[in-house]
Specification:
The structure is a single chain. The protein is built from five helices and no strands. The chain is mainly α. It folds into two domains: about 45 residues, no CATH class; about 40 residues. The longest helix is centred in the first third of the chain and has 21 residues.
């Protein structure tokens, strides 16, 4: 009896793992799901939904599911832009970035 139970378990485990791996979504499928959720939340239908889905999948609409920047990441983005605008490079850029990121 125990042998049969072990045999059944050893056969079922790989099958269960294969099924779980098949459920992983591709990046395109994840994007489609996110856009679909947004369209549903906005209660869009018909041509309006089709247009939204088209724009969303093309990246013309910011996905609500995308991670928002933390305050530190936002500060880094601003400092990077300022450094680029000033055309800073090398040590001058490093020094500017350090000072910029320390500032409140």
């Amino acid at each position: 009896m125990l042998k049969h139970l072990l045999l059944a378990a050893s056969l079922a485990l790989p099958l269960a793992m294969a099924t779980a791996e098949e459920k992983k979504l591709t990046p395109q499928q994840e994007r489609m799901a996110a856009c679909n959720r947004q369209a549903s939340e906005k209660k869009l239908a018909g041509d309006e939904r089709k247009q939204f889905m088209s724009d969303c999948l093309a990246g013309k609409v910011a996905a609500a599911d995308e991670k928002k920047l933390t305050p530190q990441q936002e500060k880094m983005r601003v400092c990077n832009k300022q450094a680029a605008d000033k055309k800073l490079e090398g040590e001058a850029r490093k020094k500017f970035m350090a000072e910029c990121l320390k500032a409140a």
